[in-house]
Amino acid sequence: MNRLPSREEILQWISDNPTQTAKRDIARAFGIKGAARIDLKRMLRELEEEGHLQKKRKSYRDPDRLPPVSVLSVLPPDADGDLWARPLEWHGEGEEPRVLILPRESDASLGAGDRILAKLTATPGEDQDYTARLIRKIGTNPLRILGVFKKGSEGGRIVPVDKGVDKQWIVPEGAEHGARDGELVEAEQAGPKGRMGLPKARIMSRLGDPTAPRAVSLIAIHQHGIPDHFPDQVLAEADAMKPAGLKGRTDLRELPLITIDPSDARDHDDAVLAQPDDAPDNEGGHILWVAIADVAHYVTPGSELDREARKRGNSSYFPDRVVPMLPDRLSGDLCSLHEGVPRAVIVARIRIDAEGEKIGHRFERALMRSAASMSYEEAQSAIDGNPTDRAATMLDPVLRPLWAAYAALKKARERRQPLELDLPERRIELNEMGQVASISFKERLDAHRLIEEFMVLANVCAAETLIAKRQPLLFRVHEEPNPDKLDALREVVKGSGLTLAKGQVLKTAHLNRLLAQAEGTEQDELINLATLRSMTQAYYNAENFGHFGLALRDYAHFTSPIRRYSDLIVHRGLISAHGWGKDGLSDHDLERLDETAKHISDTERRSMLAERDTTDRYLAAFMSDRIGAELSGRISGIARFGVFVKLDETGADALVPIRSLGAEFFHYDAEDQTLMGSDSGRVVALGQRVVARLVEAAPISGGLIAELVEIEGAGLERGPSRRPGKPPRRKAGVAKKKAAAKAKKEKRKVTRRR
Q1: What is the pTM for the complete model shown?
Q2: What GO cellular component is one of the record's annotations (predicted)?
Q3: Which of 545, 609, 569 is nearest to 217 (CA)?
Q4: Are 351 and 441 members of one domain?
Q5: Are residues 300 and 414 in the same domain?
Q6: Whose CA, among 74, 251, 738, 750, lies 20 to 30 Å from 176?
Q7: How many whole angstroms separate alpha carbon 436 and alpha carbon 213?
Q8: Is the dihedral of CA 538, 455, 424, 411 positive or negative?
Q9: In the predicted model, what is the mean pLDDT of residues 216-232?
């Protein structure tokens, strides 16, 4: 050949000849000799840097890769006794990757021909391409048991922690996995279910002390009745699934959609892209792509998977584990948009103008291939001028257009004025032993806000489309605060020297003005907390009552069908509305839409309670070695029995019992949310800065008990007695109540006279 081949010709040749991808093979194929080899090497390096090729030892190949969770077929052991496996769903056009299985002591035995679901780790530069850890054998699903191990002369027994379960399990000798008497363990059923005697179990993992941090999420899961074991028939359905193909879908595999998630994300169900809109009528506008995993393709109405997903309602997230709504074959594999892996999606193509207003949208069923799986921190760092090598290649074609579109969406958000609460989210970091290593507050980056804005807009598009097509759906509803809660908020605001408009229809803009008044002041956190408490809880409903907090009229959840059943219903609605297939809403779905809305609202609250209990227990365990320490905080709650103090360091709430405030009697004013000493006249109120001494930390209950050392910089003086006395002064709320009671009494007298 007299000329260098084009980049396209090189890529096509590598695709057509996956076994001849060394540089010398490519040079021979195109007749490249001498100095021209230097130009070929440069071209291959550029293709590699741009992500079109991946160098493997001395050869180049298509960069398709295996997903982190994959189905493998176990091969016979080699001469060294190592177990290897081959992937059953390799999408790449190059040589099939080599996978080395790393068995653990507690793993079930594996033999040639076994099909397994495994977690993969890429090992570039090693003899193998990936290492694999067993999740479970395909087609097997032994029952899991959580309980306390009681050691016996031969083996022992397991006493389950589940409430109301009195059946024990025998652990035969040799199946204890080193467990000690009194330890909390996870075990699985061993052998067939017998009709006579106690069933047998094999211990899989030791969790140690039942009160230790590592055990608390499991205990919360069982206490709140969150299903954490998939029935055999559900797993059988999931295991039989094959990846969706291109038939009936738009091919978006060349579109550089990317996922941006937390660095420890367990699944990736949304991908995004932004492009300049070249239409002459939309100068400065953008085209947004929001691609969501097509879960409805795999979880069809009336299937075993569907029944189990509806039963769970949602995934539950804990610091050390996830209880997924769908089996890992779907949530971690087929429905997760892994980098470089073709995946089925429903995609929203949205046009916005330069001011961030939506001017049009449409939905498509498609096949995509993620160009990159990035963390929020990696994406943000790249935009801030410190890109990683990988992010640098994505900066101009992907990341900067995303941020340009986000800048436009921010303008629309500012005009819409959704509620702008500033309440930092806690992050519990665990070490390898499952103990709390640190507690910090998650940093809010523009990368987080960008994804949130894209998802909110996609959810609006889904709701509007289904309304326009007269297709029933589940709305995400958030009603405005009720009058009683607003009155309580106004009392807190008044006590803080701020104002909240009264006598007009409340809008989020009014609350945002209040939050802006408090920003940067001593009352900042108090006003944010009080505003949050005044809100009603969001829920699902087949009727549309709008979303007050987001200041949106039409809103539905569309963007997380892996972890929310509501989103799966919306996906089915879109399928039915567009006539994409037979996997849309069934008659049974439509008949029980109201019932489904109530059920999944309940399961959402169940998960929230379990997650909160777990967090409280982790915090109590973390604080248990700080007994006697003096900690700064702010009074966040007032009750008849005491006050709650939110500690600055961890954000944990500690209870200060009223008996520890002093020997005097304290009058509780529910309206003003204060406690007043009958002798000293000391007023304890919301928002006051305090120093509290930690007295007790109970990991089992998650409770923290403290006593106050200082209030607003002044040490506490003790009153002389506990007897109820007359306070030296009354707050306005108390005086109002007294006057109202007196007027009522006078009215009764007048009535009797008549």
Answers
A1: 0.75
A2: cytosol
A3: 609
A4: yes
A5: yes
A6: 74
A7: 7
A8: negative
A9: 85
